[in-house]
């Protein structure tokens, strides 16, 4: 009985904190924060020094694949991950002439040499292949990804972390699963022979998942980290509902139509935007596939114990925001 009372008290506290958060957040957002974030996006071609307007997610797709890499103070980890990514993409392009791609590096207000690293890759591969979007100041990983998604040109859009924790070759696992589901969604398996079939037109999402590695991770982690992980999973379950075992893996693929719906609505900017994506996918009834990927822990993670209160705060914010309809969803 005491345990149930504790859970009830915690839920009430989360709701109260969330309601206050929504009010404060909305006042802040409307007053001055969005003036910067929603300003027209322009990136600079380092070779010509000309400013080039960014494309829009509502434009027709011009590339097959867009890769969005959020980067905040990633001067040291970004070069290796980018080199591996570009080598894979070049080899695939050489084998398949119909394959086209772009890489968007979204610098989330870095204070180190991240911008220089990004521009070095833009100069090396050209502005059609690699682009750098500068947010000017730090807004959070969720906002950086949102910005990159909204200004991508791909039929398929992949978000991946700057540390290269998941091998870029694993994108083919997500890609193949999306194509398989899309064929079934569009007139059964005959879609493969249908010239009107476009993968970009069918809303589907594929989440890279580390759930198959969880048993090994539990065995090697400190007890308090396992306790916090289980607690976070419970709060996510209460907030977004069941269905996805690993919401936090930074390797996710979206069809263009799915990205339009999701990233024009997403509001959380930092730790728990992944959970909001799950919630919105359920709202729009977008199929979500969970696909196992290879993953290795890379030193330099920016998530620590102090992130937990902020994550809980954002989950409370989201829960109350949507349930009170203070956060409207545009269809």
Automatic annotation (TrEMBL):
Signal peptide (UniProt feature, chain positions): none
Enzyme's top EC category: transferase
Main localization category: endoplasmic reticulum
Domain Glycosyltransferase 2-like, chain residue ranges per copy: 66-260
Catalytic reaction annotation: a di-trans,poly-cis-dolichyl phosphate + UDP-alpha-D-glucose = a di-trans,poly-cis-dolichyl beta-D-glucosyl phosphate + UDP
Membrane topology summary: Single-pass membrane protein
Molecular function GO labels: dolichyl-phosphate beta-glucosyltransferase activity
Cellular compartments annotated: Endoplasmic reticulum membrane
SUPFAM superfamilies membership: Nucleotide-diphospho-sugar transferases
Pathway recorded for this protein: Protein modification; protein glycosylation
GO cellular component terms, semicolon-separated: endoplasmic reticulum membrane
EC number: 2.4.1.117
Keyword annotations from UniProtKB, A to Z: Endoplasmic reticulum, Glycosyltransferase, Membrane, Signal-anchor, Transferase, Transmembrane, Transmembrane helix
Pfam families named among the record's database cross-references: Glycos_transf_2
Listed InterPro entries: DPG_synthase, Glyco_trans_2-like, Nucleotide-diphossugar_trans
UniProt feature coiled coil, ranges: none
UniProt-listed GO biological process terms: protein N-linked glycosylation
Record family assignment: Belongs to the glycosyltransferase 2 family.
Name listed for the protein in its UniProt record: dolichyl-phosphate beta-glucosyltransferase
Organism annotation: Gossypium hirsutum (Upland cotton)
Record lineage: Eukaryota, Viridiplantae, Streptophyta, Embryophyta, Tracheophyta
Name of the coding gene: LOC107943257
